[in-house]
Amino acid sequence: MALAVVSRTRVAPATERRWLLGTARFMVLVGVCLVMSVLTRSEEHGFVFLNMNNLLNVVRNASILIIIGVGETITLTARDVDLSVGSVLSLTSVVAAIMLNRYGIPFPLAILAALLIGAVLGLINGLLITYVGLPPFIATYGTLWVLFGFAYLILQGAVIYGFPAGFRVIGNGHLLGIPMPIVVMTVVFLTGYLLLHHTTLGRRFFATGANIETARMSGIKVERVIIAAYAISGFLAAVAGLVLIAYTNGSEARIGDSYLLPVMAVVVMGGTSLAGGQGNLVGTLVAALIMAVIHNGMNILAVPAIWQSLVVGLLIIGTVLADQGLRKRA
Amino acid sequence: MTPRACSFLMRVPSAAWAILLMMSAFTAINPRYLTLDNMVNIVLQNAVLLILALGATLVILSEGIDLSSGSVLTLSGVTCVYVMKRLMDAGASDGLAVVVGVTVGLLTGTMMGVVTGGLIAIGQMPPFIASLGMMGVGATLALVLAESTAIYINNPIFSFFGERLDKSIEFPLMQYVSMPTVIAILVFSAVWILLHHAPFGRYLVAIGGNETGARLSGVNTVFWKWMVYVVAGILAAVSGVTLAARLEAADSIVGVGWEFDAIAATILGGTSFARGKGGIGGTVLGVLVIGVTRNGLNVIGVPSLWQPAITGTIIILAIVCEVILARWKERRRWLWQS
């Protein structure tokens, strides 16, 4: 009797459990794709969803989300959330836009400046969290509003558009037939994966996130590790901002606002624990693709834009609940 | 300085110093700042924020966070005015429309609180992610209901709840009293009683101090944690309805960012996340810090384009000072005692 109870409540080994959850996520992606293919099929247009152009479109739309998501996954691995990513994206893209459009600064310089500003903003987040000791969601939520204020101030509430062709290549161009956003996303993802799983800094991210006191006692300078994580997140938000404005050829102060909810949803759906120390980059990638497929499907089905954010809100709540249920059962 | 004088200075909350400092700076720049009329104006402008911030304080005392309060504020204002407008179009009397509309508005906020609290207490979701999700849900519902614009309402009884009293009551000094202020004082008293003279407050502080300890000593932590968010939802609804009455309209995005002001006011007032410390008295000061900043920037003529950036920076700097000062005070106190 006792033995039966024990064997029934057996705790699955971590690897087995992770494999199971990873497979489940992948199956969801396949399932969502199938459902969308069937739902969007029409007599005169055939498979609207399931053709090469649209699929590339889906991945390109997911690219921005994945680039930010990699940064968010890293901060969640090392410490906690970064709610300011959307605003960092807005501010850096606004700065780049104004440099390119109004002051005619050469685009490599503008790109460099935007990336630097993104990293510095992340650095400030990290300083607020480590040395000032603010809870991460307070610090980053505060910077969210401050940065929006500055983006609004710089643009004077206007919309700016029209960038030099050289700059637009990173959003609009193709490399070997693959759209540039996808290329950038792949580079970011692979670098992020190598950083997280094959470098000392990556191990330190995991160690600090799992137990900050133990990490400190084993000689890791945890403050620096956390600051590095937030700086990377800011940097990647800037990358995403540049790709986004190069693609859309315009920028405004609220351009990044709509990314906060989806990024949080994607990272959590991807299996990165909010408790720290459990980053899962592959999960983030798959979850972002699921999100992009759902968005694309809703667009093809002509679901009004405001209902889409309701779907995202429900999705984030649903996945966290399901995630916790699965973790407890497994 | 002698320890006695020093300890007196330290007992004055740092938010009070911030208010004094800023008020003297603003007065130096524009002497017209320091008039009774303007002071009354500051109180009127910030009564709504105070009601919202009281909810945020309760949630933070229980070691949670509610990012959805801004969108709950919007949604309850919108539902209230929507129902009122529909009823008046159908020919209902002003009074009936107000009663039904306000009830529906308050119920909406309560329901949002029930769902958010349920997700956090029963579903055991991390508070900020649950409330972030509910923020999206609430904002969307408000946009859909108001069709992405503002609903205007013309109802004298409803407007009364947002005005200065001299518009409706003939009595001396009534131009210095406004309905939102009265509502804020009533709500403050109710929350004070709830926090200091009811089981709710005791359990809330116990949960904030040490949740496991509270559970092990027999407190129904799930239920009381749930109730914290329900009360916060009701307070957000009260502020939403009051704001709608003051503006005589419900805008579909009016509450965007209010949750940050509410949380910032709480922290500026000295409520800290660790160990369930702080209280609602400090929150009043915190709200005043934000209110004095906003109003002062207006009075000294800072262009509205600059205001979000400047206000945000001042608030963040004030929070940083407050947190560092609190830590320093703690260390000094410990040194004296030993």
Task: Give your account of this protein's structure.
The complex is a heterodimer of chains A (330) and B (338). Chain A is mainly alpha-helical and 330 residues long. Helix content of chain A is 75%, strand content 4%. Chain A is built from 14 helices and six strands. Chain A has helices spanning 2-8, 14-39, 52-78, 85-101, 107-132, 136-155, 165-172, 180-198, 200-210, 212-217, 222-248, 260-269, 281-300, 305-329, and strands spanning 41-42, 46-47, 160-161, 174-175, 178-179, 250-251. In chain A, the strands form three sheets. Chain A has a two-stranded antiparallel ribbon. In chain A, helix 12 runs parallel beside helix 14. Chain A starts with a helix and ends with a helix. With 338 residues, chain B is mainly alpha-helical. A two-stranded antiparallel ribbon of chain B has the order 1-2. In chain B, helix 3 (36-61) packs antiparallel against helix 11 and helix 5 packs antiparallel against helix 11 (221-247). Chain B is globular. Chain B contains 14 helices and two strands. Helices cover 73% and strands 2% of the residues of chain B. The A-B interface holds A 81, 128, 132-135, 137-138, 141-146, 148-150, 152-153, 156-157, 260-261, 264, 268, 274, 306-307, 309-310, 312-314, 316-317, 320-321, 324 and B 65, 67, 119, 123-126, 128-130, 132-137, 139-141, 143-144, 148, 257, 260, 263-264, 267, 273, 305-313, 315-316, 319-320, 323-324, 327.
